[in-house]
Records
---
Amino acid sequence: MAEEAPALFTFEVALEVANKVGGIYTVLRSKAESTVEELGEDYCMIGICNERFVAMEVEKMEPSLPQMKRAVDLMREKHIGVVTGRWLIEGYPKVVLFNLDTAWDMYNTWSWEMFDKTGVGIPEHDTEAKRCVLFGFLTAWFLGEFRAQCGKKSVIVAQFHEWLSGIGLLMCRMRQIDISTIFTTHATLLGRYLCAANVDFYNNLSNFQVDIEAGNRQIYHRYCMERAAAHSAHVFATVSDITSLEAEHLLKRKPDLILPNGLSIKNAQCMHEFQNLHAIAKEKIHHFVRGHFYGHFDLNLDKTLYMFIAGRYEYSNKGADLYIEAMSRLNHRLKMINSDVTVIAFLIFPASTNNFNVESLKGQAVVKQLKETVDVIKDDIGNKLFDLCLRGKLPNEEQLLDRDHVIKLKRCMYANQCSTLPPIVTHNMTDDANDPILKQIRECKLFNARSDRVKLIFHPEFLSQTSPLLSMDYDEFVRGCHLGVFPSYYEPWGYTPAECAIKGIPSVTSNLSGFGCFMQSHLSDPEAYGIYIVDRRFKNVDETCNQLTDYLYHFCRMTRRERIIQRNRTERISEYLDWSRLGMYYTNARRLAIDRTHPEFLEQTRSFSPTGSVRLPRPYSAPSSPFGSRIASPYQSDEEDNKVFDDDDGDSGLHTSNLISTDTESVLSTATTPNGTGNDVISSTASDL
Amino acid sequence: MAREAFVTLATNDRYCEGALVVAQSLRRHKTRREIVVLITPQVSTICRSRLSVLFDHVIVVDVLDSNDEAHLALLHRPELGVTFTKLHCWRLVQYTKCVFLDADTLVLTNVDELFERNELSASPDAGWPDMFNSGVFVFTPSMETYNDLIKLADTDGSFDGGDQGLLNSYFSEWSTSDTSKRLPFLYNMHSTATYTYSPAFAQYGKDTKIVHFIGFVKPWNHKYDEKTGEVTQVEGPGIHEETLVKQWWKVWAEVQGLEGMRKTTTVEYKGAENPPNYGGQPDSVHEVKKEAQLKLESQKQHLQQWQSSNVDYAGADSFDHIQAKLDTVLQLDDTVNKKS
């Protein structure tokens, strides 16, 4: 048989391919385009078939690769439901999706094989873990068949995301299928549990007895699945330095690489428009605030700053405790200097509620009525004014505003009176007395009194365009705010500050969040770019809180112009967060996996002409970035201040040296394998630069 | 090119020692053919990893995995379990021709010329020379033959309860067909012949090509002193010629010296001085089955403990133990990779 030309096939395996459960879906979905661009037809994603999503998001078609077609057919012969086609997202990637429900017949055989080969069994009651076993074995089956259909010299790389897909990796290794494997954890199971349990996580990281901790929390089998996959993978990777540390101690393997999460900025980016969008969205928030503070509205909206914290309702993991405490201290400091700035601090955490708070709704209604009344009177006055002027008379005050109008206005203003303070929460909480956020707000006595410079509003529901209160979606809300505050304690990556950045909104993050770590190592002066990083790792709680308060206080003291300039700089980071740049880390992970299993392949393909199915990563010099590739413009602030709103070049203070161009180097240095074979990866990538 | 292979079979961990010696004895005489071992699921992971150092392919055969006919036949005649495992060799249709060697044989010279013979070539059995002995035979893998054998087993059974009876029934024309299928006795020299017909052994023994340690006591049951190379035979029916047993142990010691053998060797084989002595009649079909069954039962119970969330995570099920289990396969995979 004639040997086929060596080819490289890449698979990415995750439960969340065309199936939204949590954050991995976002990662895969946004990354697809840049990966397809790099790997083309030899890239395919493997997931499960969730009919609801498949109907909406997948275009079914038969595989075009003959090897894949045969592998799929063999499985279908055994009555396994396999959907093949393309995911209808940017990049249009190929997908192979298994219907787990068609495989339950095999469960006993497979769970036995798993136990026989690994010594790990699955408790009867854990259906999710059992489904993971089915998914894993189906994946290993498919990859095994596919491998058998390929020529000996071909190389197959498979990247598995999260413990949920780990069995696939484990069985590929146990069955000794020649596949170069990468395992990526986006967080560790045990880490999540331990953090939620309020142990002093990072200070005790090296002391945990991991088996016992997992066992006591009834997740030993899941932990074993995760750790076995991490142990067996040719390359082990996590999303951030902080998760890397966590994995090193909880999974007992130091990750070979960091794979930061990117975004697809193409759709979110508005270039020069973003400043205008900020103004438009801010006006909508103004509208809500007028209603919310009815009867107490003495704010100068031009001197009001909107800050917010948002995410899953994990009170301490997300740093809500720190947020409220810092707001309380900020309030004190602003009062001390008699500041005329008002800070309205939102907390957006979906929690269990019994619909909206009556006071909140009433405020919106009252203000709406006043607005309508004023509009009617305004039209009336306008007509009168026109009529009088037409007749050559200049009207006096009484001629314009007649008694009828005054009565109408007075009626509205009486309705506008309010004896209670503006509510701190927009909804009726199911468990008002024990809600941790409300409890803490009460302890700090931040009740939105007139004298308070910081007002708190807890919105315990996702934002939605159709809400009668704050009728805007999350993205729009973010655009309208001035500062996102995310001082998380446990945050393996954390998209929220990144989402702020691409909209040009500055944010606070922490050095315990993956994003914060990434920014810290890639920007030499993150604050200049509107990325404030609070130290939650090496400082005690009080110091951390003071640091956060300092940042907030400093932010409140900035002039409007300074904030506009800062937003321009912040928006520039977005290019840095795009997958077209961050996808390179994944490329390096794949190269490292090949280097550890088939070093000869990299050598062969290097001498190959770059045709056919072998695709090496494209050179990274091509996409130009504002950082490093351009000379900083000389200082010309005076001219630019006049056109702040369409200014995409206003941050003349930016020096290219502010940004350390460590993106490639840091990857490469971590890619060095213990036995030094990683050098191949280094030299080849370096030559691409 | 036509693919040809030597095939052997190991149904439990002890026979794996024999299989390893068969492979090493072929390798040291520079065979140019592939070497394949069929194993049953009872064989432990540790042994599997040891096997895959020497064999080109380690193939797990499970009687229960085979086709319905075989399955059905086995229900009728459960005593044929081990025999059926041997029949699996006919399913190796990726090869055009194979030579089967029992795990209790020892190759003394290059025997690649056996591939010039056709199916079914074998040596006569010393006990009944009109029959062939099924410890060494040349065959052509074929699903047709395999299915026919299963059918025959189901309808007629095996007159001696083992594979030899069944194969002699199927290839009944062996004794009357052309002489090229009748292999010389030297290709399957029963070790018992050394004393049942010692003058013949004295005359021809030096030309022996393959020894077959037939009988209940196998070379691995004897005691071997690694330092002196002395072998102390255990009592039992059928004493083997001491020089041959010593040769077997010499090859065994070579195997232990190979890379990837020692480190995966379990406590069971700690030091070669005292390999497990199972004495008595360790190799009777009955005993083997019973032991495998016990092991299977305890493993099943262990899985049930996991399934009812009753896991000894602080002890026997700690991840260190799981990892050690994984590593036997992972390390092996890595060595294979490095070799290639």
Note: Chain B touches chain A through 27 residues (CB under 8 Å).
---
Amino acid sequence: MVINVQNLTKSYGKQQVLKGISTTVSKGEVVAIIGPSGSGKSTFLRCLNLLEVPTGGSIMINNEELTAPKADVARIRQHIGMVFQHFHLFPHMTVLENITFAPVNVKRVSLEQARQKAMELLAKVGLADKANVYPSKLSGGQKQRVAIARSLAMEPDIMLFDEPTSALDPEMVKEVLNVIKDLAESGMTMLIVTHEMKFAREAADTIYFLDQGQLIESAPPEQFFTKPGSERAARFLDQVL
Amino acid sequence: MNKTRLFYVPMMALVLLFALFGPVASVYGQELSDQPKQTLIMGTSPDFPPYESVDAKNNGEIIGLDIDIAKYILGELGYELQIQSMDFSGLIAALQTGRVDFVMSGMSATEERKKSVDFSEPYYFARNTIISKAEFGYESLDDLSGKIVGAQLGSIQEAVANQVEGAAQVRKLNKVADLIQEINSNRIDAAIVEDAVALDMTNSNPGLVMSFLPADESDGGYAIAFPKGSPHVEEFNQVIAEMRESGKLDELLQKWFPEAKDADARGMIDFSVLEGYVPYILRGIGVTLLFTLVSALLGLILGSVLSLFKISGIKPLMWFATAYTSVFRGTPLLVQLTLIYYATPQLTGYDIPALLAAGLAFGLNSAAYLSETIRAGIMAVDKGQREAAIALGIPYPKMMISIIFPQALRNILPALVNEVVALVKESSLVSVIGVTDLMRRADVVRADTFRSFEALLLVAAIYYVLVLILTSLARMLERRLRRGD
């Protein structure tokens, strides 16, 4: 198991956002996390690299306990890439510098090697010609593809996507989803919080349905979308499809 | 990568700073231990010609009657002379704190001062004069009843002015040159000034006349001041007595009190009086800029650290930073400057150079203000930037330096420029502890020429040009930082 989550809880004051989630993700598995807004999808995802510190429960990444008191969080995080809804590219760096910064400064890769790798990744996401451009000159879709390349430059074992297309204009959604799909097919372990049902159905191996801080269903897409196993999931699908 | 280079610059400047001041301290130490010839440091306020003034037209050396006498005495006794220039009002404090070994600065041995320091036998009895506009021509202290009388702060004449019966007000000013200006602008009716100085003043200001007051030998005359219990008083007294016997003293007096020369009439503002002084004043630009650079960098680095403390969430650090800001913002800069300069040698034994003390005081003060500015700048950076950096595994210091600070800097650049501009101008305060910056040099020239406006206008223009250059550099930097937009 690449990821093993046991009884994960998270509270803000008295409000319990995650109410004991347990699940496992195996290597190469692509998970799409769906559910109504406020269901705890993003919080669950952000707990997986400790951007949110869980209130209780445990998270194992590659058989190392991330939630252990003495865990080397920074090192474990290097194995987990994250892509945000609002991209969060570093605005004062060029596209190339955005991608090479972490490999050079964290993994101590030589600048030459990092650049070469960055150019390969940019070619993969179709933006090789934008290497020396500042992020402000890019469209939303281009920014998100650069952000994906930036995460991949650290050669993670797991990729987390937090609503990667929610901030995009409709015509740009596809270019980003295609990149994510390619990545899924390459065997990367991925968890994707998304509202794109069609994409979830096509790309994911497993659908997680979250509602009110609980993992209500975990099922293959065909089964989930045709015969949802719970009343709540059925109602949700009714609303969005 | 450009970002990292940005942060080497402060480091380099700090290294440079210590390289500049380090050697001074060590060379000084060597002189004391290696050479049999002992160095005595003399404190003086070189704005009192012909007793002491800065020879601004030549190389800025301090010259005058007192200097010649000091050189002669130390030569006879086999000491090396080192001269430390400072404001007159700081001389007694400098003696008490052991910053100087003796003071010669046209200083009268008053009973008041004798409480704080020891004096030699007097080497000269000066007469006081009343200076006033020619149309009034006050001749005696009685004439000054009901008038506003001026005198130099901390001088013996201040005491004389205080004795004027029925004086409307006694106005105390820092510089003799200020007194002339005040008379010329009718803010004061008359000033009590010493004979030699009065002679020069009336020479260069034809509208003024002077009247001698009777010499008062009971006031002790001009004497050399020493710290209480100094071992040097006795030997100095012997040489003074010899000088009186041999006529050496008269010879020096002749040299520095020449016959009155014809006054040349000048207008209110006449820049030709600055002839020969301009290079001397211009050399102050370097001092002012070095000082500004040092204090701005110190302020920026320390301010950054304090701002990190403030957002650290660690209680003791937050309290420290808040208390620091509160204290340095809540007390006058001039007080901080004076305290650091005079207290450091007493508390630590390190004889802090004036420029370093000034850089430290301004840097510490500036850090208090900047820490608030920088904190606001950091808070204004999108939280997502931090999350993206964390998710990439970038460690905290690297994240702050390369990701957060550059963006914060861009937000607060206008505020930073304001702070540096303020530093350039406030730097004129350092002249009170004798740093020969632009303002101090203007004061020296004013004292030399007995003309107020010309030197002040010149340095005002220089400050203005410096600020203009600075703001346009800042605009270039801002454009560079905004290239990502």
Note: The first helix of chain A runs from residue 41 to 47.
